[in-house]
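We give the chain.
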Amino acid sequence: MSTARWLAMAAGAAVAASAGGADNWSNSGGNAGRNGLTAEIGPDAATVLWSAGRPSIIAWQPVIDGGRVFSVRQSGFPPEPGSNLSPVVGQNLDTGAELWPPIHVPFNTGDWTTFVAGARDGRVYASRSGGGGNVSPFPNGQAKMHAYDATTGMVSWSSVATTCAGPYDGVVFAGNGDLIVGDFLNVTRIRAGDGTTAWRVNRVGSVSGTCGAAVNNAANAVYVADAAAGGTVIKRFDLDTGAFRYQSPVMTGFTIQNTPFVTPDGSVCLSRTQNNAGTDFFYVFDDTGAALTQRWFAPAAWTTTSEFAADAGSVVMVAPGYLIERRRLSDGMVLATSAVVVNDYSQRMAVDALGRLFYSNGEFGVSRFHSFNADLTERWSVPIPNVNIGAPAIGRDGTLVIAGTDVLRAYRTPRPACDANCDQSTTPPVLNVNDFVCFNILFAAGDARANCDASTSPPVLNVNDFTCFLNAFAAGCT
């Protein structure tokens, strides 16, 4: 690998890491923008850290906050005598051990299966809304959001408002931790401090599920995909007040069961599909601050209840024929295409700090989880029983958690001592281009200080040391 090429890769990874934000997987889509980008470096191989937990008849999305992972493990369908058929379970991210007795969210007639909405700042949020009755007449399908202490499992508050969001809608978070709940009928901001309602606005979802919102905290914007005359539009609302600002041009089509997402540069994306080649496209919009304008669109495979991915310069989508494509964000040019056919509707994705894709095919039958290199060549894959939306979730130390119907599995690759401050600078930014130059000089000179991975097998200095240094830099290790 040439020095120039390696430096370019490293710079891209550093940008991706800073854009990813945190080492948690707080909600479906991983973060407020739902773009699947994490600052962590995921596992290099399918090395199981632990395999543990309760069985579940359906695999639901796990979320991660610090050293804890939370999920719903379901043993039956509503009605739920004793409210105990879909508990929230907390597990230690390092060992898989249960943290506290399972949480049984209160059940009322008309409620649905519990879902974990998200986790952040030491709390896990769950509700029972989102069932088949989440349209009028009320209160069918409506339920309160409940906040639980992540350390103890004890309830902190129950929301004033009810919502009809469900597990496929998900919940995202404002910068201060408030919950932004997008459902079929409304977008609601719930205060994280006490569960009161900051604001609520009406909207018109296309179908009764997968109506979730995406947030760009830097732009003070909330985005949802709504039905409109002739098709679908993306609407922008003010994050602080809920006021409607403007909407995109109409995307032709009738139904849609995917949510929008926001890329690190603020672009707004939507895979608007309904199993019709004439209307199934992946769209990218610019938000100018005064309007949403179409940048490009490309043919897309029919997907539902899916979460896609982006990094600093590209987006990852599913193309016709169910091949995964990485496209350049600026103009839609195809950068890479997978050789793996992933023919199911519910696709879930994450991109780590090295641009590697972690992908779940959402199957109930031939159910697999895949890891791809940045060029979409396959690295490894594993079968996961009936994975549905049970993956991915990537958290602290690059720990990947996948929920099947049997157990939860965690994968992690141990990393060497983490120090990328090669020139030992103390002036901010401590990690900068000088560290890349320093490392390359040491490597070229055969200096033992370039043996980042601490290997002893000849050749001691090799490409693994570049990868090791890149990992350390992307993780911000000093």
